[in-house]
Amino acid sequence: MLESGAQQLAPELGAEWVYWETGTRDILRIQSRLLPTALLMLAGMVIILIIAVGAFIMWARRVRP
Q1: What is the pLDDT at residue 35?
Q2: Burial (CB count within 10 angstroms: exposed 0-12, middle 13-18, buried 19+), residue 29
Q3: Neighbours of 17 (CB within 10 A)
Q4: Distance (Å, rounded) from C-alpha 65 to C-alpha 62?
Q5: pLDDT < 50 regions, the chain
Q6: What one-character-per-residue DSSP string does 10-34 give?
Q7: The whole model's pTM is what?
């Protein structure tokens, strides 16, 4: 009963309220909000990894010519 009520209130009050007040998570709503942020963070991590690997390769070439 509590879960179904939380599901009905989710669009009106927001997923955060439903999670904190009932312990029930409206997963689809939260994922749709965080997807752009998660993709941006993933892209940033990939760029940092590429830079780190490139820097290591350049350093390795300089140490062992």
Answers
A1: 76
A2: middle
A3: 14
A4: 6
A5: 1-2
A6: HHHH-HHHHHHHHS---HHHHHHHH
A7: 0.49
Residues 6 and 34: their CA atoms lie apart, in Å, by 20
Token pair listed for 39: 């993709």
What is the rounded distance in angstroms from the CA atom of residue 20 to the CA atom of residue 39? 25
Find out whether 25 and 34 touch, Cβ atoms under 8 Å. Answer: no
Contacts of 32 (CB under 8 A, 6+ apart): none
The count of residues in the chain is: 65
Tokens standing for residue 52: 């780190």
**Residue 15 is encoded by which pair of tokens?**
């997923």
Measured distance CA(46)–CA(38) in Å, rounded: 12
Smallest CA-to-CA distance from 23 within 15, 31, 12 is with 15
